[in-house]
Fold:
Amino acid sequence: MESKTEEVDRWTDRSDDGGSSSEDRFTTALAKFNERNDRKQYKPLELDAKTLRSIHEEEVFIVRSPCAADRVKFYKNVNPKVGIKLSRANVFFHRMDYEQLYLTEGHCPISRKPDAEMEGVSEEELAKKSEQRE
Structure:
């Protein structure tokens, strides 16, 4: 049986090739993962902190669980041609579908709350507006 560290190392690209771009580090880690992954059972790709930090912030979706015991999860859209939107309720949508639903209903289709990005305001301004309504 492998130790937890060996298991993580097996799925993680820990090479230190200082000049590589974020896409190179991520693509290399993904390729190594696909080579080793047993497709009969799903296992998420785990990245080291350096590789995760090397990915552009706008390419990463961060999902925080309401339960403090759960770990924060990071997702990357590997097909940038497909626009993805993460709702306030931590549900992924095709961006155009979300926008259509939001414009039709006037709020997030899951949480039924306003979305700062769709309203064109900051989260703080949105919170102030919500307080004024109540």
Q: What stands out?
A: Residues 82-134 form one domain.
